[in-house]
Amino acid sequence: MGLKTWIACAALGATVVTGAGVAVAQDGKAAENAVKVRKAQMQIYAYNLGVLGAMAKGQLPYDAETATNAANSLAAASGMRIPGAWLPGTDSESFEGSRALPAIWENGDDVRAKAVALWEASTDLSDAAGMGLDEMKAAFGPVGGACGACHKAYRAPAN
Ligand code: HEC
Question: 1, 14, 80, 100: least buried by Cβ within 10 Å?
């Protein structure tokens, strides 16, 4: 099985968690850790996308090595499978400080598809990032789109 197929099978998904019968968050510490870890993963996405976005906007000079590092980090982070970070009982209605909508735990297949879409767009960006500013910019859009598609469906608005 190729890496891409493996990731497609293994990418984060709420059904992985519920299907495996992992216990619902029983104590505050487990819930807190789960939310912390998934937010950390998102922060790694945002940091690296920010570097590339600044280059795309001309706020940071394009540099092939810096762009490749950022894109590779984003792709690696989006390929991380951490089902425990999506512990049932840590949705926005159950856990203060979470914006993860309860719908995530009802639509595991769709959430997983959106995570895989991000991973695919990120690996394309990884391939393109070092090839020049125009190539990087062309591959950047689909990544931003993949972030937005999941947030629109599954992230509660900021208060
Ligand atoms: C599969 C769905 C999904 C994808 C894809 C996704 N996100 Fe998120 N993101 C979420 C959810 C759900 C939350 C809310 C988590 C919470 O508050 O518990 C979130 C939260 C965040 C946060 C806030 C983290 C914090 O510290 O509170 C940032 C920043 C973020 N995402 C950036 C990104 C970026 C950038 C991308 C694309 C490179 C991305 N996300 C892709 C679902 C996704």
Answer: 1
Q: What is the pLDDT of residues 101-126, one digit of tens each?
A: 999 999 999 999 999 999 999 999 99
Q: Does the beta carbon of 73 lie inside 6 Å of ligand 1?
A: no
Sign for the CA dihedral angle at 113, 79, 13, 87 comes to negative
- Could you give the CA distance from residue 38 to residue 158 in angstroms, rounded to a whole number? 17
Task: Quickly state the pLDDT bin for 26 (edges 50, 70, 90).
Answer: low
Sequence-distant (6+) residues with CB within 8 A of 2 are: none
Taking only Cα atoms into account, the Rg of the chain, rounded to an integer number of angstroms, comes to: 16
**Atom number of ligand 1 nearest to Cα 114:** 1
Region of residue 58 (left: phi > 0; alpha: psi -120 to 50; beta: else): left
For ligand 1, whether the C-beta of 75 sits within 6 Å is: no
Q: Is the CB of 151 under 6 A from ligand 1?
A: yes
Cβ of 50 less than 6 Å from ligand 1: no
